[in-house]
Amino acid sequence: MGMISLVTFIPIFGLLIVLLIPKQNEKAIKWFSAIVAFIPFLIATYMWTQFNYSLSGINNEMQFQFVEHAKWIPSLHIEYFVGLDGLSFPMFWLTTLLSFLAIVASFGINKSVKGYFALFLLLETGMLGVFVALDFFLFYVFWEVMLLPMYFLIGIWGGPRREYAAIKFFLYTLLGSVLMLVVMLALYFNVKDPVTGQHTFNMLHMMNQSNHSGWLLGLDVRYWLYILLFIGFAIKVPVFPFHTWLPDAHVEAPTAISVILAGILLKMGTYGMLRISYPIFPDIAVKTANWLAILGVINILYGAFVAMAQKDLKKLVAYSSVSHMGFVLLGMAAMTDASIHGAIFQMFSHGMITAMLFLIVGVIYDRAHHRQIDGFGGLAVSMPIYAGVAALAFFAAMGLPGMTGFIAEASVFIGSFGVYRTLTILAALGIVITASYVLWTVQRVFLGKLNPKYEHIAEINGRELFTLVPLGILVIFFGIYPMPVLHLMRSSLIHLIALMH
Amino acid sequence: MDNLSSISYFIPELFLSAAILVLLIIDLLLKKEQKIWTGILSAAALIISVFFIFRQYQLPVTDIFYGMLVADSMAVLIKLIAAISSTVIILFSLPYVQEKSEYYILILIATLGMFLMAAVNDILMIIISMELVGLMSYVLTGFTKRNPKSDEASLKYILYAATSTGVMAFGFSYLYGMTGQTNLIKIQQALMTNPPNQAAFFIAIVLILAGLGYKISMVPFHFWLPDVYEGAPTPITAFLSVGPKAAGLAVMIRFLITVVAHPMGASVNAFTQNLQIHIPMLIAVLAVATMTFGNTVALRQTNIKRLMAYSSIAHAGYMIMAMVVFNAQGFHAILFYLVIYMIMNFGAFWVIISMTDKLGSDEISAFKGLGYRSPYAAVSLAIFLFSLTGLPPLAGFIGKVYLFASVIKGGWYILAVLGVLNSVISLYYYANVVRVMFLETAPVQEAVPTTFYDKLMVTLLLAPTLLFGVYWSPVLKLTSISFNIFH
């Protein structure tokens, strides 16, 4: 068993053991789950040290790292084919980190503890699997495996409108993925493995246009397939107008699940586009890039404006995610070196920043039992440490220089400006709106006169700091010195761009 | 093949007939409290017949009894499904039906009818075998004599079935009039050498589809089904949803590839129509209507048995969908799906049977908070329902992949998209049951008592649902040798 399988399936083994721990022994379940989630992070970090920065991946199996390739269902040519490259590794590593932190952040759960942690571990395997799978069928299975635990985690442990939010999330994402299923099967019958001459689900073979048998040559069908695939991924991102599930799911989900939703699940949409849509349909991706850029800018502006109007702190953070994912879309659409680096770095950076923001909202919600922005005031007086960490996260979201968000957004702008001048200027307006809602929120919640109701509110505790501080450090460290991450993805992204043109 | 030499191809049926007669006599000798042995022996007889059926895979493909029946591998697979599903139904019923043991013998006779349906090759045999299954089903549906719902269901069933069979027989008379033959293969030859009037032929096909469609609950011939499913004793509901439906699909496939189409060339990989009259398009429309109707009406159900009734209509729609491609891949996919559907549908039904009995109601609201009162049963039911939805990594997903793959390969993109969108609709009502079980809290908290037998049956059905979701080569092997049809 290779390292990727080890990381991906350790949570499943942990799940089986969690199921054996007696229900009453809640502490053991929590600590055991945390340990189980920490091991993949350690292994993933070790893999980072072993990562060969010069290999590009994308469409060449020899260029992938930690590859495992085995037959699964021979008659249908489905393979267990996993590997990592510069596109997937940052997300893979981030998933292991956020899963661990989210499990620690879930220690406060006290309803059906066993079920919660078991489902969480199942979710982690699904997420990791999505980022490592290179066989479309395997990718699809992992993609769907995430849905079930997510449905229950929102539906059982969520807020007051949890049932509605859970089923809405489930239906939306299933709608996206069944469309993907149609595309997957159509591609399967169109693509032949050059060695065996059989149909294949191998994504890398699908990327090589000479393996396409011409059965799909009619350009119309390929356009439709690209659009179906795009809808599938766009729902996950979520791209306007497919975003309506997001505020509901985020607001109702428990804190740790919001962290995972915003930190990892949203990125799967853009990851899927870059991993599957772009290399398999490069011609159509280039032709439709303008539309993607427009959708990206709509996301940025619409998300930011709606965030500004929110009264609920968590909803504000949710809409800020819509806005920030717009930068990823814009960077992807411009398809220049700088913009695509910015896009992937934004995925990585936003994963950490938004995770921090949701954790911060969770801290205050656990104490005050509400999230009304106007219901606080002057919290910096009674909770100085908390206010400090929160300010850091909010400034990072704003794109303040010295933090990762700045690097990501700046390089998206630099890369896109030459391609989409007007759109980039409009997107830059988004930064101003972001700054206004962030500063306004910080002012209303932390500054001003202390709301006497919260005079004796408890300061942030050690466990909560334990989940926030590592992310804060990483946000600053990679904000000042982003090279480790940028190096990680450089060869892959340059290769991807070359493939597109 | 003449009658005498056909007998060696007819061993499972002969064995089952003998078992029925012997069990009838044994049943007379048993005391009232020993009657359950009739059930146990019936199950044993079916299991033995499964072994006889398995051995038939080695026999050469031929027609038997002067062309009345055929012995080919599709017949073998359908017989296997029929025998196994009847065995499972008997096992389901053992805790509940312990005195009126004629129940088990009726199931055996219906199984014999399904064996014949699996192998029909003559329009007279189609009517006879379908009626044999039908007659037993009416009696079984009305088996709880004092229950007015059950009586109503039985009466509705008889009236509806009589009408559809009549319409079908009328269609057959057209077919006979046009070709002068009753044997399906000979009809095929006659149609090709001497093509009849297209309009008359089309009318005949539509009339016959009405009869076949009633058996597999194809819209618009489905009206009997929800009431029958709700009124029948729950194990019989489960019985009707799998065995007779599989046999009905087999008859329909046989009808489509003989009367409607013929093999292209010497192999049976692809078929072309005998007369070019847009039958695939008609089937596509009926399939979409069936699945969409089943799924949308299921959304509003509050009774779990009615929900399963509409869900079974939807699943029939998925299977009919794969018929449009008229090739071996499509029919393989249907056979594969039948095997998977049998397992997951029975799983869901067993939890429903065992739980409705203990909860005293078959309303979905009675399942409230079941996830905390009986976790194993509730988790299993959730898995079966999600498998019926078609979510990976469960067996139902793989079944659907094969169905959609065959449709997409045939170039029916829009049909495939409509099919997958239907899966999304179905998620809503399946997840609704799960929501009631897990997301709502029960008014009473105490655990629902479950017996070892309950858990054993669930586990036996749960294991393949999970296993075939990640490793389904064994099922694939079975179904891929099962479309070596007589032609």
Description:
- The complex is a heterodimer of chains A (501) and B (487).
- Chain A is mostly helical.
- Chain A is 72% helix and 3% strand.
- Chain A has a domain at 288-501.
- Chain A has helices at 3-20, 26-50, 89-105, 113-132, 136-145, 147-157, 162-190, 203-207, 219-236, 245-252, 255-280, 282-287, 289-308, 313-334, 337-368, 379-382, 384-398, 404-417, 421-446, 462-480, 483-500, and strands spanning 65-73, 78-84.
- In chain A, a hairpin with a 4-residue loop joins strand 1 and strand 2 (78-84).
- Chain A is globular.
- The two termini of chain A are 37 Å apart.
- By secondary structure, chain B is an all-alpha fold.
- Chain B has a domain at 291-487.
- Chain B contains 20 helices and four strands.
- Chain B has helices at residues 3-6, 11-29, 36-55, 73-93, 102-118, 123-141, 148-179, 184-193, 198-215, 224-231, 234-260, 279-298, 304-321, 328-359, 370-373, 375-389, 395-409, 413-439, 452-470, 473-480; strands at residues 62-64, 69-71, 261-263, 271-273.
- In chain B, the strands form two sheets. Chain B has a two-stranded antiparallel ribbon. A two-stranded antiparallel ribbon of chain B has the order 3-4.
- The A-B interface holds A 72-76, 112, 140-141, 144-145, 147-148, 151-152, 155-156, 162-163, 166-167, 170-171, 174-175, 178-179, 181-182, 185-186, 188-189, 221, 224, 228 and B 372, 386, 391-393, 397, 401, 404-405, 408-409, 413, 416-417, 420-421, 423-424, 427-428, 431-432, 435, 438-439, 471-473, 476, 480.
